[in-house]
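Chapter summary example.
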Amino acid sequence: MKIKKLVALLLAVAMVASVLAACGSKTPAPSNSPEPSQSVEPSAEPSNEPTAEPLKDVSDMSYDERSTYLYNEALGEFMALYEAAKDETEDLGLRYALMAQAEAKLLASGAFLPLSTKGGNYAVSRVAARTASSTLWGNDSYRFHNVVVADKFITAAERAEIKAKWAELAGTGTFEQWVKDYLTGKGYSLKDTYNMIYSSDPQTWDALATSRAADSEAIVNTYDGLYEYDMENVLQPALALSHEVKENADGTVTYTFKLREGVQWVDAQGRKVAEVTADDFVAGLQHMMDSMGGLEYLIEGIIVNASEYMYEGADMSTVGVKAVDNYTLEYTLTGTCPYFLTMLSYNVFAPMNRAYYQSQGGKFGAEYDSEAATYNYGKTPNNIAYCGPYTVTNATAENTIVFQANPAYWNKDNINMKTITWLFNDGSEATKSYKDAVAGTIDGAGLNAAALEACKADGLFDEYAYVSDTDATSFCAFFNLYRERYANFNDETTVVSTMTEADGARTNLAMRNQHFRLALCLAADRASYNAQTVGEALKLNSLRNTYTPGNFVTLPNEATVTINGQSVTYPAGTFYGEIMQAQMDADNIPVKVWDAENSTSDSYDGWFNPSAAAAELDKAIAELAASGVEISAANPIQVDLPAYAGSEVYLNRANVFKQSIESALGGKVVVNLVQCVDAKQWYYAGYYTDYGYDANYNIYDVSGWGPDYGDPQTYLDTMLPDYAGYMAKCLGVF
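The structure predicted for these 734 residues follows.
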């Protein structure tokens, strides 16, 4: 089973408030242009005329057969282009251009609807802007050891001045001291504690066996990797001091890292366990491959013989990782990987002490069994070893997690936070985070609509409220292509659908139709939906119109691609989003995914189009009639959307989704809000599922994706078939 890094939407606004200003955007600089290459040709220009072919009956297929069939039916065009794009490792311009075309096909499938990103809301905070890494990928933005926290809310004007100075000083290594001097000069005192909220307890403390954000965002503060992005977004040595790259005669590429000596592993009580050595990275990679917790896809086809070890039983000695000596580590790659170093800030390359792991019942290879009675590794914070800035001294479920400075940490004299405390908040009380921030219980909060009014009433808004930056996380609404479950998999008595068997069968057929899915996408008023969490004034700020942000990369060199039969050459510096838009336009998809004037795919609603939604539904009705599905206001298609009834904010948001879709589609589609009494029920309807067949919804809006490294592949790989892409399971397949 493969599980990729999945981020939950619950409390996204509030959770990032304490580091809201620590987000930004970065694109690679163009390089010299090689000769343009010719791409594979996408399918011919699609016809807008509905066909009358009946849908194939898939009910008698096995789950894997049905998943494959439905995936190809919905995402076949995407996959064909994407495979061609991934093959391009030398010509980065062509690689990115083909990926942009592939993503356009993905969006045009209507299998999911981009909703929003993190940030873009009003907030108040004691945390200085830009004092955590704002790198768009990996986990380093959740390393909080060097954040700068003041004793009072920082004013909006001062925050703007800090951000401007960051832009000036980034890359010089001087910003951290400047911001400390600035704040103390303004009369603030600096704290060495940082309090923030969280909404989901880690399910494991094993960094190498998970890619869920709720786990990895906590665990990342307990270990160091080889390199780490600092608050100026510069990749700095951590456990590695330096590295060299060598291209081998057989086409492989070797990265050799020299490790820092004298770094200690400690247990949860701070007792020394062992010294960190190169073998810890060998053991870590092997355990990551054994556990198959969702990180392994990142090295498939990248590390020599990693795939062969995982799927064909190859010996670990053949895998491209080697401890040359205690302080020299080698990774051998199958070939050029342009984004390899950017992957090092994600937990796929975390170290693990072999002896400690074995002392907790851990085994390697064919003997690995996380279900064994003697296996305890990662089950609690007391069952891991630490080599990072903090140990966990308290982890009380749905209450408190405390990270205390590790006295044995190699860089202990250069961390700003001695204690980091996470306090649980399930979002059931709309103004709790704001009230706690004002009281000093936590150090910052995002302002939802209710909190915004409270802030204004308290007289704090004008001086302290600021608009937070957005990041690269993409939250989406996912459509289940073939729903099999109508109650939560962990408890059949919760989140139970009212749909009849006949209703479910009709909906499954409708969801297989591209025009029906696009009708849903175009009918949803995303701006009004977003307003429920960020307020009316900022409802557009965090809207996202794509999966991969359109400005995530630019072409480093000129590239020529074929768009529906026409050869088009894009110069170096062209944004990824521009090429996405060109393919969408060529396919007559009435969606704006790129704002060329502002060079962004965010902060406007490029999808909501009721008249186009109605036209798409008319096409769907004509096509589905061939499969015996009659759709009308008298006989509508029903779709279930799990709704968190315990939160006024999230219930209001679900109602906007319902009302806008039903209105735009003339009552021919009815959205049933299936109420979840608490956040756990909401999560178990989809977020905590491991397979598509456990997805208890037709539409689900709790999940999202944050990038692992600096290449569009980090997004698009999540939609691979055959259990290789975790987001595919959000579509009810694999």
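To summarize the output: The longest helix spans residues 63-86.
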